Amino acid sequence: MLKSSLTILKKEITQELRTKYAINTLLAFTGAALLLILFTLSAQQLDPTPKSGLVWIVILFAAMTGMMRSFVHETEKKTWELLRLNSRATEVYTGKLVYNFLFLLILHIFTFFFYIVMMNMKIVSLPYFLFSILFGAAGLSSVTTLVSAMIAKADRKGAVFSVLCIPLLVPLLLILTRTTTIALVNGPDGSELNDLAALIGYCGTTIAAGVLLFDYIWDE
C-alpha cells in the first residue's frame, strides 16, 4: 500500500511540475486577492483580530480554485479506469491526499508570509501558528480531496464542488480563525485548548470519513 501510494504521489508531483497549472493558478489568485484586500479594503486599518481571520478567506477560495482538479483531470484525460485497474481505492486516496496536503501546506506558508509582511503583523506564538498552518492544510486537503472525487464525473463540476465544500469547511474556518488570533494577536492563555482539540478532531474525522467513503466513490 505504501509503495502504491508513493507512486500516486510521485505521479501527481510529476504532472504538476510538467503543467504547472495549479501552481500558477493558485499563486496568481492568492497574489491578486492579497493586493485587493490591501488596497480596496484598507485592511491595514482593521483591528488585529479581523486581520488574523481574513487570510483564511483568501486561502479557502484559493484552495477551492486549485484542488477541484484533484480527480477531475483523471476523468478529462481518461486515466480514471487505468488507476482503477492498477491501484486499490485506499492507495489512490492516500496518494492524492498527501499530495494535496503538501500542496496546500506550501500555499499556506506562501500566503501567510506575504500577508504578515503586507499587514505589518507579527507572530506572537510560533507553536500555535505552526499548529494552525499544519492542521489547516490537513483539514482543507481532506475535504477537498473527497469532494473532488465525488464530483469528478458530474456535469457542472465547479458549481457542485463549491456547494459541497463550503458547508463542510465553515466549522474548520471558524476554529482556524480563533487559533490564528491566538497565534498572531492574543497569545496562549490556557483557554485555547478546546479549539486545538476541536481542530485535531475535525481533521481526524474528515480523513477517517474519506478513507471509509472513498471505496464506494471509487467503485461507483
TrEMBL record:
Its main location: membrane. One of its GO terms (biological process) is cytochrome c biosynthetic process. It is found in: Membrane. It is a multi-pass membrane protein. Pfam families: CcmB. The keyword Transmembrane helix applies. The chain crosses the membrane at residues 21-41, 53-72, 93-116, 128-151, 158-176, 196-218. GO terms for molecular function: heme transmembrane transporter activity. GO terms for cellular component: plasma membrane. Keywords: Cytochrome c-type biogenesis, Membrane, Transmembrane, Transmembrane helix, Transport. Belongs to the CcmB/CycW/HelB family. This is ABC transporter permease. It comes from Rhodohalobacter barkolensis.
